[in-house]
Structure formats: C-alpha cells, structure tokens
Amino acid sequence: MKPGKWIPKIVVAAFFIGALLYFTGYAVRTFRSEVTTTVIHATTVEDAVEGSGLAIRQEEPVEGSGELMEVLPAEGETVAKGETLALVYESKEALQEQAELDQKEAELEALQYVLSHSAESSATVELGRSIVANLESIRATVFQEDLSEVDELMQDLETMIYRQDYTYRGSEAVTQEMNGLSKEIKQLRKAQSSAVSQLKAKAAGTFSTMVDGYESVLTPEVLTGLTPSKLEALRKQQKKVDRDGYLGRIITSRRWYFAANMDQADTERMRKDQKVTVRFDDVAGDQAMTVDSISEAQDGKVTVVFSSTRRLGETSLLRSQNVSVIYDSYNGFRIPKEALRMEGDQYYIYRVSGAQIRRAQVEIVAETEDYFVVWQGESVDEDGNHVEQSELEKAKQIRDGDSIVVRGTDLYDGKVIRE
Question: In terms of domains, do 319 and 348 share one?
C-alpha cells in the first residue's frame, strides 16, 4: 500500500481521539463541578428536659348534685367566701321560671339602655355597627369550629337587636314596656324565692368543676421530704369519689406546686430558688415557676418541686402531667451538617444568589444529631448602630427559604453554577 493512503486515516483517527478526550474531559469537569443544594428555613430549638409528676394544692371539695342545679362560676373563676356557687331548683317548673326571669331581666336592661341613650343620635349608629361586628364574630367563631362562645355571642346579638328595635319606637313606648316588665319580674322573683335554694362557697379561692379524689391526699404538707419513691406512692393513693355527688372544688391556696420525678443528670443545672420555664402537656402556653426543692437521688431519679402563684385559674384542672423544663431556646436556620464549612476558626456556608454562590459567615447556636442551627450577626458599627449593607453583603445574608450548597467540588465565593 502506498504511504499517502494512510494520511487521511491517521487524520480521522486523530480527530476522533481528540474529540473523545474533549468530551470525556468535559463530562468529568461537569460531574466534578455538580452542586447539590437544599432549601433552609428558620427554626427554634429548645434546650429542655422532661419529667412526670403531680399538681399539689390546698383544695376543698364542694358537695352538691342534681339535674335541677345551675352552677354559676366558670372553670378557674375566682370566688369569694359566701358567694353563691349554684342555684338548686325544687322542680322543672321552677327551673323554667328562672329562665323566664333571666330573659325578662335582660330585656329590662336593654330597655334601660335605650331610654338612657334616646337623645343621642350617634348611639343608634354605634348600635348598628355593634350588631354588624357581632354577626362577624359569630361567623368567624363558627368557621373556626369553636362553638364555646356561640351562645354568649347570640345572646349579645339578641339584646342589641332588641335595643335597636325600641330605639325607633320612642321613649314613651319604651317607658310603658319597662313598667310592664318590672311588674312581671317582681312576680317571678316572689315565686322563685321559695322554689330556689342557693349553695354558697365556704371559703374563698379558685373554683374548679373537677373532683378527682386527690384533694385530701396531695396537700402542701406532703412536700416536706418528698422523694421519687414517695411521689410514686402518693400517685397510688387516689381515693374513689362519686363525682355526681360534688359540685366541684375550691382551690384555697394562692401558691400551687408541681412535684416531678426527673433524671438526676437532667437537673444538674437546676438550683433552689431558680426561675425556670415549665410547659405542661394539657395547659396552653409556658408557665414561669420557681424551683422550691430538689431531693436526694434514688436510682438515678430526683424529685423536683416547682411552685408558682400565677395562672391558677388556667391550671385549675391540672393534676397528673408530663412536664418539660426549658433551660433555653435558640432561633436560627436549620442546615444539614454537610453544608457547614470551616476555615480557621470561622464557620461559613455557601448561599445561592442568582446564578452564583456566595460565602456567608455564620455562627453555630445549637447542634443536634442530624443538623446545626446557625445564625448571622446583624451589621452594626462600634456603637451598635445598624449599618446599611452593600449589595455584596446582602447577597451573603441568609434568609428563610434560601437555597444553600450541601455538596460540591471546587467551590469558592462568586462561583457561577448556572448559565
């Protein structure tokens, strides 16, 4: 074969090899520069420990029962000594008459309002606005499926419509109606005086509709020398009670206690008289309480007694509960551990800003097994005054919903990752 015939084949082969090397290198570079990102969100992490225990208070059960009884105070309401707790009716007719009396008295009150505001033209306008606002409140309550206040809102609406109706009739018609209602009320009260008896409070305090059999067991006297084993023994001493035979109970002590068994290791940061934040499973919101005492350890457990004089009405149903004691809480951004990088003593992440990635310096505020919670300090001067950020600084500021780099190679500040 002549030498010249090999030249085209050599050129083609060289071109093919060169193209293969180029595309192989491009693929390798593309693979190596691939960046994996994730979206981050603001979060709150709590440094908390848990336990389980019992609420301890000075309480007095209130006897009383019957279908024809109307309990007056609401759960957690403060009552005075001698205050009427319930009305007991001798018959169903007496109960119906009481309902009629209540209605007549509400009508009389509405008419008194109309008469006292009859000379004020603005009162009619204001009443109309109140009716509209009340209707909106009823709509919102029903929409939220919270029917606990619907009866009261409906009663208020009925009263306002009644007032509006008589506002347009004039003061003479209102006076005549009031006179008639006053006579009816007087007659109903006279009839009711012998058909209704009153159940009065023997002591002042906070009223609760629940009686659970611990009232004579869990008193402040048991707190002295309380240990994990003694607390568990108290839990088993609940007495059987016929709840139908009691109206409720009155919490007579202003200070209330919660004794909890906790792991000894979890209480090493607690001290007597320390103010702590406590959260119960069945009570909305956090409670500010004081550490009254910490017992000696038994099998790795201690009994911690917390106390408070606040929110007694909101905790009136509290008894056996799981509890969390919150030492601290941290706000920041939750990021995967792989996303955090370090140079010297500085931690940073790469934030996606447009087509580029920007290096954002952060601080670790909390760590869990799976992730970090990080935060960025605000831009302030030496006097602590806020400093306006440059466009570059804004690009490095992390926000809720940002994308950050989790994995990638050849990463640097300003690298373009999107065409």
Answer: no
